[in-house]
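Notes from the 1:1 (GR / supervisor)

We went over the backlog. Supervisor wanted to see one worked example end to end before approving the batch request, so GR pasted a single chain during the call. The sequence is below; no edits were made to it. Supervisor asked that the structure be written out right there so they could see what the output format looks like.
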Amino acid sequence: MAIVVFTFNSCKKAEVEQISPYQSANHRILGTWQLKSITETTTVDDDQNISNNVNSDSYTFFENATTSKSYSGSTLTTTYTSTSKSIDKDQEWDNWINPTKSVITTNTIDNVTTTTSTEIYTKQISIYKDYTYNSLSTTYTNQGGGNKKSNKSNITITVNGVGTITSSDTTYTNMDMVTVPSEGTWSWSGSSTYGKLQLVIGAGLMGGIITSLSETELVIEANDNDINNNTDYDEVGPDPGGEFYTYESITIKDKTKSGIETTINTNTTIRTYTEVWVKISSNVTP
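Structure output shown during the call:
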C-alpha cells in the first residue's frame, strides 16, 4: 500500500512540473485594463565628418536631440529639444577674377529647437480566458485634421554669429472625438533567463515585455541602446567637374585632381520606456 501511494504522488508531482509557466500570469492578466501612464525618453546623438585627401574642404555636423513623453490621465505631453551645429569649410581663391591667394572660408550654423505639444487619448482592453480580446481606443482630432491639443515651439538659428528666433503657440479649443474598437487574439511569448521567465504579451493595444504583473497593475518596460558607426570612402573623379581643386598656384588656380572623400558617421540612440496599466474590471467573459 505504501508503494502504491508513493508511486501515485510521484506521478502527480510530474504533472505539476509540466504545467505551463504562464498559468499564474494567465489568471492575473484576465480582465479589463485601462492605460494609466507612460514615461518615455529617447536621446539621439548624431555626428558626421566629411573630408578629402586633396584640399582643405570639410564639413562637420553634430546634433543632440532628446524627446520626452509623459502620459497621465488622458493627456500625453511630448517635449522635444535639439541642439545642433554645422561647420562648412571651403577652400577657394579670395578673388577668382584677380586672384591673390588661396583662403579657407568657414560657415557656421547653430540651431536650438524646443517644442512642447499635448494630445488627448484613452486606451482600454479586455483580456479573456479564451485568448481573445476587445479593445477601445479614443482619440481627438483638431480643426486642422491633426491630433494635437496644443503645440508650442521655439527655434533659434545663428548663422556666423547672427541669430534669428522663430516661435509659435497654438491651442485648439474644438476637438472631435474618434472612437476605434478592435478585437483579436492575444498570446504570450518570451524565454527563461537564469531561471526567470520573461513575459512578452501581444494583445493589440497592449504589447511588450511585462516587468510587473499583479491582480491590479501591469507594467511594460523597454530599454534600447543602438550605436551605429560607419566610414565611407568615395572616389571623386576623373569625370570633368567632378574632381577637387588643388590650389597649387595663381597661374593654375583651376587645376583639379581626383581624390578620395571620406565620410564618418556616428549615431547613438538610447531609449527608455515604461507603460502602466490598471485593472478596472475582473470580468473574464467575452
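Supervisor's comment: The chain has one domain: 22-281.
Batch request approved.
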